[in-house]
Automatic annotation (TrEMBL):
Protein's GO biological process: proteolysis
InterPro entries: ClpP/crotonase-like_dom_sf (IPR029045), Pept_S49_SppA (IPR004635), Peptidase_S49 (IPR002142), S49_SppA_C (IPR047272)
Gene (name only): sppA
Family of the protein in this entry: Belongs to the peptidase S49 family.
Pfam families (UniProt xref): Peptidase_S49 (PF01343)
Protein name: Signal peptide peptidase SppA
A GO molecular-function annotation: serine-type peptidase activity
NCBIfam families: SppA_dom
Peptidase S49 domain boundaries: 101-248
Listed Gene3D superfamilies: 2-enoyl-CoA Hydratase, Chain A, domain 1, 6.20.330.10
Keyword annotations: Hydrolase, Protease, Serine protease
Amino acid sequence: MLILGLFGLNVKRALFSDDRGYEVDGPYLAALYVEGTILAGQVDTFGIATGYQHQWTLDKIDELMNDPENKGILLFIDSPGGGVYESDELYLKLNEYKETTERPVYAVMGSMAASGGYYIAAAADEIFANRNTWTGSIGVTIGTLYDISELLEKYGVKTVTITAGRNKAMGSSVEPLTQEQQAIFQSLVDEAYEQFVGIVAEERNLDLDAVKNLADGRVYTAKQAMELGLVDSIGTMEDAVYAMSEKYDLWDCDVIDIVYQDHSLWGNLFGSVKIPDLKSGDVSALLEVVEGGNRFPISYECELLK
C-alpha cells in the first residue's frame, strides 16, 4: 500500500500517457537533442533508459531521412563527449542524412560541446555556439589506469591472473603496466586521434597541421573557437533557425523538438525515483574508484566536463 501510495500519480500517468511522439502538419525542421555522454545502453538502477539514447537517436535520423515533410536538422549539443565508436557512428549517420536528402544540418552548442560533442558537430553545414559554450577538447583518452599492486603487497594480498598471451591482462589494476603495453595503448589513442583531426580538417576546411596544432585536448570558449575556425557563428537556437530559413528559404517550416521520452509503464513508475549510492568505508570507496578507472573504453570525452 505504501509503494502504491508513493507511485500513485506516476501509475496514472503511465496508464494514460500518449506515446505518439511528435506531430507535424506540413514542412518542418527537426530540433534533435544530443544531451549528456554519447554512449550506448545508458540505464539507471532500475534498468530504465537515462540520458542520451544512442540507438534511438540513430533511428530518429533514419525516420527523418524518410520523411519528405522534414526539411532539415537543428542538432542541439550539450555534451562532454563520449565513446569513439558511438561518436563516429552518429557523425556518419548525420552525413548519411545530408548525402541522402540534400537537406541542411546545423549544429547548435549548449553549455558544452567538447571532444565527441565537437566530433559530431563537425558533420554540420554550419556550427553555432552559445557565447558561453565551452567546446574543442579535440583529443582522445583511454582513461586512467590504476596500479595497486604495491598496496596489495603491503597488506599481504596476493593475486593470480591466468592468461594466454603476455598482454592479455594489460591494464589490470593488480599488475604494473609494461613499456610494451603502454605503447600498445598509445597506438590505440593515436589512431583515433588521427581520425578525429582528419575529420575536423576536412569538414572545417582547415589545414591538417593547423588542426593538430590546436587539437592538444584543451577546451576553447566560443569566441576562441570562432577565431580558430572551429565554429561559424556565436548565437542561439533561434539564430540558427533564422540562418537556415534564410539560406534555404524555409520560412514556412515549423520547428519540432525531437526529444527522447520513456513512455513505458516501468519508466513512468520509477523514472523519478532516485536510489542513493551506498558506500561502506574507505576500502570500498577505493575499490570503486579503481574499478571505474580501469574500465577503459577509448573515448572522445573531456575529462574536465564529464
